[in-house]
Specification:
The chain contains 17 helices and 14 strands. It is an alpha+beta fold. Helix 1 packs across helix 16 and helix 9 packs antiparallel against helix 12.
């Protein structure tokens, strides 16, 4: 080998060479597969309803470059008008500008990344050409709707984490607004050192309806929730709209004050105080009576007036719902629910960080854009399908679908094999160029 290669191409040059050739192969394979399916549809269609009109050329940008193919245009005698049956059968009806994978990848980059522009730039850097603009991505996101999906409720208890996310508004003279967000799950699953929430779903409150009433509707539609059978453990801070759950769910819900917020307030007030450790210990033990005793004993012992005021506010707040300082697991045991494996509540802050990462960081929103991005985020987190004006997106679904028919899998393999054969043009060029020599040498390596 060392006697035949005078210069090596860089790894990047080889990678670029292979990538460009793979793009060409992809275009060839997709053209052949699509046109064969189109021909099969033509032979099997209802000829009384769909009358052949003509063949039309289509061009579509994909993750591997541009695809050019022809498809049949039919007159629909029953419904009126004209239709491409290939588009309808393959789920991209009315959209040939970009492929479904490009569309879905762009949407996911926009939702999980910092901006629409960054999503468009990332696709360009990956593919080597400008596929779509950031404005195209923004317009598509504004069109999306979540397609509802039922989540099986395997037990009597749902765990509810509630919090608000304050977002700025772009409209002139319009103040920011707190968006009310809920994460609902069915418990915890421990895998080594990692703990995950089981079957988590998200709810974003929109409109002007009563928050808990709209949330209950979400529970019914998502989990087949029955207030006479199922129990709720609701965790949140002391905001009035959150604590109102006690009146709305008087018998089948336990409100647990979010311990993260209480611990944070206690730290800010008592950080260097001699009773700080005892107060934290009482909170950690779910001993509300001991906690109130410690807090009231500390009144008048703080070094600043501002801390005294904050302590009085904290005591006054917690006295509104002293039961919320207790352990929800004891309440569940009284209801006849086994509590083995149940953990302390408190994932609301982690949920808010996920939303804040995309929605905050100096950004301000118009109402329509905010709702669209919230919808996209929830679709991504809950792995829901999305409905757009140009069709259905299966972007984030995890379920294993049925494999394509064996015939098409075999056809795809054969087509790829034929397409790649002799498809490295550098090997057909002059033998004295470095890339040719490198590839020839590597062939027998």
């Amino acid at each position: 080998m060392e006697n035949h290669i005078t210069a090596y191409p860089s790894f990047k040059e080889i990678e670029q060479l292979v990538w460009r050739n793979l793009q060409e192969v992809y275009s060839i394979v997709m053209k052949e597969i699509l046109e064969e399916i189109d021909q099969q549809i033509a032979e099997e269609r209802d000829k009384n309803r769909f009358r052949y009109h003509e063949k039309r050329e289509a061009t579509m940008d994909s993750l591997f470059g541009q695809i050019e193919f022809s498809r049949t245009y039919y007159q629909d005698r029953e419904a009126g008008g004209y239709v491409f049956l290939l588009d309808r059968y393959l789920g991209f009806e009315g959209e040939t500008e970009v492929s479904p994978l490009v569309k879905e990848t762009a949407m996911e980059l926009a939702v999980t990344g910092p901006s629409y522009r960054q999503a468009a730039d990332t696709l360009e850097n990956l593919l080597g050409y400008r596929v779509i603009s950031h404005e195209w991505i923004r317009q598509r996101l504004l069109e999306i709707e979540l397609i509802p999906k039922k989540t099986e409720l395997a037990q009597r208890v749902l765990f509810v984490e509630v919090d608000g996310l304050y977002l700025k508004r772009q409209e002139k003279n319009k103040k920011g607004k707190e968006e009310k967000i809920v994460a609902v799950h069915q418990g915890w699953e421990v895998n080594g050192r990692r703990t995950s929430l089981i079957k988590k779903r998200h709810f974003h409150h929109t409109g002007t309806g009563h928050f808990w009433e709209d949330f209950e509707t979400f529970l019914v539609e998502t989990f087949d929730y029955d207030p006479l059978e199922h129990l709720l453990v609701i965790n949140g801070d002391g905001a009035n709209w959150i604590t109102a759950c006690r009146e709305y769910f008087p018998s089948n819900a336990f409100f647990s004050i979010d311990r993260f917020h209480v611990a944070r307030d206690i730290q800010r007030i008592f950080r260097d105080h001699p009773r700080y450790r005892a107060i934290r210990k009482a909170l950690a033990a779910y001993d509300g009576e001991k906690l109130f005793l410690e807090l009231n004993s500390a009144v008048g012992t703080l070094d600043k007036e501002s801390k005294e005021e904050r302590l009085e506010e904290l005591i006054k707040q917690l006295e509104q719902y002293p039961e919320a300082l207790g352990d929800y697991r004891k309440w569940l045991e009284k209801k006849g629910v086994a509590t083995q494996g149940l953990r302390p509540m408190g994932s609301a802050e982690a949920t808010m960080r996920v939303f804040a990462r995309r929605m905050k960081n100096g950004r301000s929103w118009v109402e329509e854009g905010m709702r669209a991005m919230m919808t996209g985020l929830i679709g991504h987190l809950d792995k829901l399908s999305l409905r757009t004006l140009i069709g259905r997106m299966e972007t984030w679904t995890e379920e294993q679908k049925e494999k394509p028919p064996r015939y098409y899998r075999e056809k795809l393999k054969n087509t790829v094999g034929e397409a790649v054969r002799g498809n490295l043009p550098y090997l057909s060029q002059k033998a004295n160029i470095p890339v040719y020599q490198a590839l020839k040498g590597l062939a027998g390596f």
